[in-house]
Input
Amino acid sequence: MTHANAPLTPAGRLRLARCVVDDGWPLRPAAERFQVSVSTAQRWASRYRTHGTAGMIDRSSRPHHSPRRTPRRVERRIINLRVNRRWGPARIAHHLRLNPATVHRILVRHRLPRLSCLDQATATPVRRYERATAGELVHIDIKKLGNIPDGGGHRFTGRRIGLRHRVGMTVQRRPNGNPKIGFSYLHTALDDHSRLAYTEILPDETTQTAIGFFHRAHTFFTAAGITVQRVLTDNGPCYRARLWRHTLATTGVTAKYTRPYRPQTNGKVERFHRTLLTEWAYARTYHSETERRQALQPWLHTYNHHRTHTALDGQPPASRVPNLTSQYS
Output
């Protein structure tokens, strides 16, 4: 391929070669005329004599013979380990006693996808999709989250101090006598096109709670100028209830469900929950559950209005929702 600073394009090479071969120019004057070296002028003239116009095209720099190339049987073993065991280049190289760079080049040459682009269960390439307009599909899911005792949990204070905080609270106890401080449930609705998110912390995951959350999420999206058309959920009992489907139908929304044991179908909201846990729930030390809950809405505002998103070309979800309230705050 012709590089950016090449003095001759294929058309310029042809003019140079014709000056030398057809018009009888000496090599040196022709080289000076086209501002190249004499050896370059001789090379293109020789190719023109042998191959004609077709000889002016760039040739591959790959050698005709590669005696030190990795044997095909070893390449097949590399591909087999990648496909069947889903190992990375470093692990394959250690297993076969090869250089990791060699294994990586072989994987690239055979166009095998990255492990991050494969489904972990089936090893098939993950199909990416995105709805064309906001509201065409909204993902809804629930994430169970343990409550924080007053004084801080064991993640940041250590198990000894964290257990002391749990015992100091008025809590339920398990049959084995250990304290139980309970759980909260993160109900999230995420627009497929814009990634605009709405999340609430609720006490359970019953059908009535899920329906109440849907009404509030529907109001939130409507206020942003988004008309919800379909809702995608997993096959949890609260979403399979007849009352859930009837509620969606009365608001003109179609209920959709993921395939059983395929959470990646609802992967956008699953990935959002992972981000939520990393950047909010476990991002810093909280000394109580109340303190953590107070930090949720500011984080959601940052996520929707300011946090860059790789799937949106580095823009926040608000960039795809012109009518979003407080968009520029």
User: Anything to note?
Assistant: The chain has 14 helices and seven strands. The domain at 138-147+182-320 is CATH 3.30.420.10 (Nucleotidyltransferase; domain 5). Residues 76 and 106 are 10 Å apart (CA to CA).
